[in-house]
Amino acid sequence: MSCIRKHILKSKTYYLEVHDDQMILSEQKNMQNAKYTVQYIWETKVMWKISDNEELCSFGIYYNNRIKWFDSDHNSLNLLKIHLSGKVFFGNISIFYDSNQIIGQGASSKVCLVKCKKSISHYAAKCISKKYLQQKKSNDRINRLQQEIQILQRIDHPSFVKLYEIYQGENSYYIVTDYLEGDTLYNYIKSYPDDQLPQNQIREVIKIIMTALNYLDSINIIHRDIKLENILLQKPNDITSIKIIDFGLAIYKQQFQKLSVCGTPGYIAPEILNNSNSQDYFTEKCDIFSAGVIFYKLLTRKTLFRAQNTQEIMEKNKKCEINFQEFEYKLQKEALSLLKGMLDLDPKTRYSAQQCLDHPYFSCKLENINILQEILDKATGFSGITQIIDQRDTQSIGQECQAAQIKRCNPTSYKIRMEQRKRTKSPRKYADFQFYYPSFCQFNSYESLSSKVSSHNISQIENFINDKLDSVIEEYEKQYVHNI
């Protein structure tokens, strides 16, 4: 583009070219002997002016501690602004945006909802106080902000918040990104009973997160603060629109990046808290562990490391003693297998993002355990049956004991399964539809604990299950196919 530099006696015409790493201004059309070269570095700042009709009329660059202004038409200047967006700091943010609402706030920054003056589009602007950055004598905070912006400039993936522009005012830096209308994943799951998402939604969430982490791995970036609060829905109640935000702790993956304690208690990979070995370095596996904590919460409705205060949470997080046997019969085997791989104590054997994506969990048929539990509770009229744990009556085990143990359920439930398979025209139809411990593997406990239950009543229960199970499975299969 061409632009004009006004002088008292005579104005000069300059020709401008935008490159990947710099902007060049020359008095010659062939761009020889450029007078102004603007490198895209941390200190670079481009200013703007608007005319009376609120259209762009000039841009300014700092040269020898003074601003040099260049005039051009609105369309050319707007195109220049688009090409420079996210690469250099702009000044005069109030020229382009209006804001009157704070949508988030932290110790060092706040997030404002801003509206573009030239359109109806809304964006989120993270405002970081210069005073906060300068409180420490070292440049750690400035360097961290600089690295956060550099990483956001590099990321181009639909599962991450997108950087649009960066501004520098007198008192603050502003990072303008997508405005995500939905809530955090933490608040979203609370809208469901007992924090339990449908199984297909849980798988969708984990797949999106793993795909995003796999992308970060491919460009050698470690997020280091993956948690429910840092995953937002772009559209309200649309779980497929989740995006990962907040790269304030993100780093480039380097061969000798020493471990240091950072992250959110309860989500931190244990090797970070146990960094007694000077040979331990940051790897992308710490993000996999954090994602595993999220997976645990979605599957079990429980917080992995529960305690009364932060100190206790950190201690449990450090020890990382996880009792998977508690959920062995409550979770689908593929889900449990993936969960164990993600929460592996040893980062060397912990799954990578690609290994997670290749896991059978993402290709298997999902099983709705809650439906089976609901059927049994309605049949027995005893809703507390799912809470009976480790009280099975092993005295009444008959000839089917060995086969039942192989199938991981007690003889009574095993007998029901065999009878069901005999009666159906498709004997293998129910073979892969497991009867899980909380419901169907509890008949012996129920019989032994309730002296009032006769064989006639048990027969009624079996008949009820036989009558209802067909329709339940068929209905679920239709729903599953529809979701896919």
Automatic annotation (TrEMBL):
Keyword vocabulary terms for this entry: ATP-binding, Kinase, Nucleotide-binding, Serine/threonine-protein kinase, Transferase
InterPro entries xrefs: Prot_kinase_dom (IPR000719), Protein_kinase_ATP_BS (IPR017441), Ser/Thr_kinase_AS (IPR008271)
Cell wall biogenesis/degradation recorded as keyword: no
Residues reported in the UniProt entry to bind ATP: K126
Cellular component, GO annotation: cytoplasm; nucleus
UniProt GO molecular function: ATP binding; protein serine/threonine kinase activity
Residue intervals of the Protein kinase domain: 97-362
Origin: domain of life: Eukaryota
Record-annotated membrane-spanning stretches: none
GO biological process: mitotic DNA damage checkpoint signaling
Family to which this protein belongs: Belongs to the protein kinase superfamily.
UniProt-recorded name of the protein: Protein kinase domain-containing protein
Organism: Paramecium sonneborni
